Amino acid sequence: MLASLRVSTARSAISAATRVARVNAVRGFIAPTVSRRADFVQELYLKELKAYKSPPVKDTDSVGQVQTFSAPKPPKSPEEADLATNLQEYENMAVEVEGNEGATATSTPAAIEDWLEEEEEEEAGAHH
Questions:
Q1: Which domain of life is it from (predicted)?
Q2: Which residues are registered as beta bridge partners of 66?
Q3: Do the domain assignments include residue 121?
Q4: Would you tell me how many other CB atoms lie within 10 Å of the CB of residue 100?
Q5: Residues near 112 by beta carbon (within 8 Å), at least 6 away in sequence
Q6: Range of 42's domain?
Q7: Sequence-ordered list of residues with C-beta below 8 angstroms from that of 99, at least 6 positions apart, any chain
């Protein structure tokens, strides 16, 4: 009895598996699997990429889109006569020294004031 039960259980399992396989085969035929759909989209995309031809580039395509290049003007060089005049003026300028703002270069320097004033100490014995 156990043997016949096992045989019938095995047969029912095999028949159930074949029914599921048939249903999957029918479903696979009607609706493609996700991987096949992805391949279809990829193939369609690659086909369109290969068929695309870019328009030829013309020399006049950039007109109005970018500014035309013009080289900057070279800087003016200083005149040598002007440099000599400026150098002479600099050499003839009076030298300014801190502390002698009001005095001229030929006069004697102003008397330096003593800003530190010391207080005289009173004798300690005078108050007592």
A1: Eukaryota
A2: 63
A3: no
A4: 14
A5: 99
A6: 2-53
A7: 109, 110, 112
Is position 39 within any domain? Answer: yes
As a dihedral over the C-alpha atoms of residue 53, residue 59, residue 65, residue 67, rounded to 10 degrees, the angle is 150
On whether residue 40 sits in a domain, the answer given is yes
pLDDT in tens, 19-72: 665 655 555 556 666 666 678 889 999 999 999 999 998 888 888 888 888 999
For 64, the token pair is: 């109005």
**Could you give the number of structural domains in the chain?**
1
Contact 87, 79 (CB under 8 A): no
d(CA 11, CA 17): 10
Residue with the bigger pLDDT between 15 and 32: it is 15
Average pLDDT over residues 111-122: 74
Side chain identity, residue 56? P
Q: What are 43's two structure tokens?
A: 């193939």
